[in-house]
């Protein structure tokens, strides 16, 4: 492999994968990736994983019922479920400040097995921040993140790696500029698996085909369009070590996956997000592993096409949640203003 430079511009330096097998990405990677020296292994902290609990089938996903209550009468919705056995991720009263800027001020929500959740809200309200906290790249100042019922302590660490994989697909695609598409997509496997280079290469080709890309394996990221880069990033997030006996389920976090794309390219990505979730199997035919996903987006088409349930973040809190179809019909003044783009209303710029 050649040396790697990393192109994440917005959301931080880590592609969300975890690596334990050393491969020669060159000195440049040290500038961008975080290493853990442990048990003689060199781990690139690019992903987060969490403790195993038990397997949950999609049949166990319970329906969602909403009841409205708030100071405006319909501001936030309380979600009622029969039990929490299907909760994969829970943020409980999470706070986060950057200096004097108090961004998150008590964010609470649950992501259940089988859910396709969108996080929306005005710019700067902390949507990307909450994704990074879930991914374990940022620690909350206060409050807790539970992964399959177990509290995560601070940032993601080696002790937590098993049971649930959490992948973050960056807005910028965050590909290594100096690695080929094949090396980018297979990065985790080259570093971390027992698979041969030939096996990885074959799997990369199959995974790229699954996201609609053929014959681009030897290209560099600079030779791809924005939409292709996003698809390569998606392929990198869904590829996994098929030599393992069992593959842990994964929750994928997408940060503005369709930002900057034309309407048709957006539709392609939106449908891919859906398909890798619902397809039920990976490129090798093993059982599906994308248990749930969370999409931060500003795009109406993405809201309508790629997610089922929405969380509306405003002034540091979840101020509304509901099913996608409730979004456009909601009488909530914040939601109405946001959906219509009206300058008048409770959201101030
Ligand atoms: N590492 C950081 N250091 C300082 N401030 C930060 C950091 N990360 C985020 N912020 C600030 O926190 C606020 C929330 O940022 P975040 O990216 O989470 O917002 P967002 O809701 O995703 O915005 P947008 O919709 O515009 O992408 C912004 O004011 C941002 O400048």
Automatic annotation (TrEMBL):
Pfam families in the cross-refs: ABC_tran
Superkingdom in the source lineage: Eukaryota
SMART domains associated with the record: AAA (SM00382)
One Gene Ontology term of the molecular function aspect: ATP hydrolysis activity
Keywords (A to Z) from UniProt: ATP-binding, Nucleotide-binding, Transport
InterPro entries: AAA+_ATPase (IPR003593), ABC_transporter-like_ATP-bd (IPR003439), ABC_transporter-like_CS (IPR017871), P-loop_NTPase (IPR027417)
Keyword Cytoplasm part of the UniProt annotation: no
SUPFAM superfamilies, alphabetized: P-loop containing nucleoside triphosphate hydrolases
Annotated ABC transporter domain residues: 89-340
Transport among keywords: yes
Family annotation (PANTHER family): PROTEIN TRIGALACTOSYLDIACYLGLYCEROL 3, CHLOROPLASTIC (PTHR43023)
Protein name: ABC transporter domain-containing protein
């Amino acid at each position: 492999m050649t040396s790697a430079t990393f192109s994440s511009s917005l959301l931080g330096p880590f592609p969300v994968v975890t690596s334990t097998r050393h491969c020669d990405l060159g000195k440049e990677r040290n500038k961008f990736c975080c290493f853990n020296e442990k048990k003689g292994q060199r781990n690139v902290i690019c992903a987060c994983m969490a403790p195993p609990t038990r397997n949950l089938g999609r049949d166990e996903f319970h329906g969602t019922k909403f009841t409205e209550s708030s100071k405006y009468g319909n501001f936030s919705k309380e979600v009622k479920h029969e039990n929490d056995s299907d909760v994969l991720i829970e943020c409980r009263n999470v706070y986060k400040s950057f200096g004097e800027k108090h961004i998150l001020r008590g964010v609470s929500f649950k992501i259940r097995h089988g859910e396709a959740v969108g996080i929306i809200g005005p710019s700067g309200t902390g949507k990307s921040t909450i994704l990074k906290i879930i991914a374990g790249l940022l620690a909350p100042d206060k409050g807790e993140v539970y992964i399959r019922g177990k509290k995560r302590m601070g940032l993601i660490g080696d002790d937590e790696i098993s049971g649930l994989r959490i992948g973050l697909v960056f807005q910028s695609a965050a590909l290594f500029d100096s690695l080929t598409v094949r090396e980018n997509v297979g990065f985790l496997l080259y570093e971390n698996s027992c698979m041969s280079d030939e096996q990885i290469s074959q799997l990369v080709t199959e995974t790229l085909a699954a996201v609609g890309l053929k014959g681009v394996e030897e290209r560099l990221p600079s030779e791809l369009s924005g939409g292709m880069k996003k698809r390569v990033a998606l392929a990198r997030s869904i590829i996994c070590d098929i030599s393992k006996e069992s593959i842990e389920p994964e929750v994928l976090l997408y940060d503005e996956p369709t930002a900057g794309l034309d309407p048709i390219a957006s539709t392609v990505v939106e449908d891919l997000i859906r398909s890798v979730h619902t397809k039920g199997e990976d490129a090798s035919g093993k059982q599906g592993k994308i248990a749930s996903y969370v999409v931060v987006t500003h795009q109406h088409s993405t809201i309508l096409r790629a997610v089922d349930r929405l969380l509306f973040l405003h002034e540091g809190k979840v101020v509304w949640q509901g099913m996608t179809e409730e979004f456009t019909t909601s009488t909530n003044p914040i939601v109405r203003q946001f959906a219509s783009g009206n300058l008048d209303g409770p959201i101030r710029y």
